[in-house]
């Protein structure tokens, strides 16, 4: 079969489309014929080996994938799954790790996956759309809805809103009826965020967060208006303390990561004085993945896909990801 493979860590030039051994189904596995594979922010990190993960080589890229079942393992329930079923991959595999990180990724013509890691694709949802959802949109759904319980009428501040998770956080907040302030440092991406529903944008390359938010909503005060009800911050670093200073009393600060650093400044006076709630959200579940697929099928939200490229253009897609020259999701399809 054909697959997008790298044999050593480095730049996008390491990616090659080449013949790769066909996967073999174990008793509890299925073999999928891949229709599309979704790229994510961790793909350049795995390629360049900037994480502590032990990635076996050669490695096939992409954590997200969607396709149809072509083979069932001997112990797979034939009443539940059949050849021809359209499914997406839940990429966190027990005992193997994450697809595209520590187990072979989805950018190949065929993929082996345990049947317990299958999520059915609703009618009307394409492979390209289904492959764009799990990691970014599943993470955002758990953060905003399952954990954060965003509500209509709330004021929501999203830091890093131009990334994959951030874009979906903006979409989910708007779908819930919230007023959204989206932050980013790229002017053209902020324009895109306005187009998908952001009520206000803050250009963090030239605006300071605290005065910009207070200009919109005022300073938070006990027993009075001011500030935002929810802050989404998966950046961490120097942004953490600023966020505590713009939250309305009783509001919440949500995080699912820390791309700018895990060690943050803190001031517990804001937490106790304004009775703030700090909430963590760790990845997403299969139920979250099924829910985001349901919402897409019901046209409650539609993923933003920047580019769909054939496997043969994987180097260009990876460089686009490295350069952050995109808005939304990058998807690869078999050539």
Q: Which features does this protein show?
A:
alpha/beta, 27% strand, 10 helices, six-stranded parallel sheet, Quinone Oxidoreductase, Chain A, domain 1, seven-stranded mixed sheet, 2 domains, 335 residues
CATH architecture of the largest domain: Alpha-Beta Complex
Query: Helices and strands: which structural class?
Result: alpha/beta
Alpha-carbon Rg, integer:
21 Å
Per CATH, the superfamily of the largest domain is Medium-chain alcohol dehydrogenases, catalytic domain
* Termini Cα gap: 11 Å
User: Portion of residues in helices?
Assistant: 25-40%
Mean pLDDT: 97
Strands, total number = 18
Specify the biggest β-sheet.
7 strands, mixed
Topology:
Elements: E1 2-6, E2 16-19, E3 29-38, H1 42-48, E4 59-60, E5 64-72, E6 86-89, E7 92-93, E8 97-98, E9 110-114, E10 118-120, H2 127-131, H3 134-147, E11 155-158, H4 164-175, E12 179-184, H5 187-195, E13 200-203, H6 209-217, E14 228-232, H7 239-244, E15 247-255, H8 268-273, E16 277-280, H9 286-297, E17 305-310, H10 314-323, E18 329-333
Parallel strand pairs: 11-12, 11-14, 12-13, 14-15, 15-16, 17-18
Antiparallel strand pairs: 1-2, 1-4, 3-5, 3-9, 3-18, 5-6, 6-10, 7-8
């Amino acid at each position: 079969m054909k697959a997008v493979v790298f044999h050593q860590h480095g730049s996008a030039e390491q990616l090659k489309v080449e013949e790769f051994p066909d996967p073999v189904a174990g008793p509890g596995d299925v073999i999928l014929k891949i229709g599309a594979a979704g790229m994510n922010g961790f793909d350049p990190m795995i390629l360049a080996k900037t994480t502590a993960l032990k990635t076996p080589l050669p490695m096939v890229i992409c954590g997200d994938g969607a396709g149809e079942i072509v083979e069932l393992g001997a112990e797979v329930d034939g009443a539940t799954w059949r050849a021809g079923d359209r499914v997406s991959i839940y990429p966190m595999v027990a005992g193997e790790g994450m697809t595209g990180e520590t187990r072979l990724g989805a950018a190949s013509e065929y993929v082996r996956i345990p049947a317990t890691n299958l999520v059915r694709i609703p009618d009307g949802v394409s492979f390209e759309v289904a492959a764009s959802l799990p990691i970014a949109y599943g993470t955002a759904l758990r953060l905003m809805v399952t954990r954060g319980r965003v509500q209509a009428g709330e004021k929501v501040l999203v830091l890093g809103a131009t990334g994959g998770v951030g874009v979906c956080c903006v979409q989910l907040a708007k779908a819930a009826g919230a007023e959204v302030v989206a932050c980013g440092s790229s002017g053209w991406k902020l324009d895109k965020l306005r187009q998908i529903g952001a009520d206000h944008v803050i250009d963090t390359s030239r605006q300071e967060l605290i005065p910009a938010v207070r200009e919109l909503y005022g300073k938070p005060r006990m027993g009075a208006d001011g500030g935002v009800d929810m802050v989404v911050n998966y950046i961490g670093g120097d942004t953490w303390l600023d966020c505590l200073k713009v939250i309305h009393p009783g509001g919440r600060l949500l995080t699912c990561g820390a791309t700018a650093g895990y060690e943050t400044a803190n001031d517990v006076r804001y937490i106790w004085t304004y009775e703030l709630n700090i909430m963590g959200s760790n990845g997403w579940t299969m139920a979250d993945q099924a829910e985001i697929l349901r919402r897409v099928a019901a046209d409650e939200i539609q993923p933003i896909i920047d580019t769909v490229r054939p496997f043969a253009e994987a180097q260009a897609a990876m460089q686009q990801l490295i350069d952050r020259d995109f808005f939304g999701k990058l998807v690869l399809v078999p050539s």
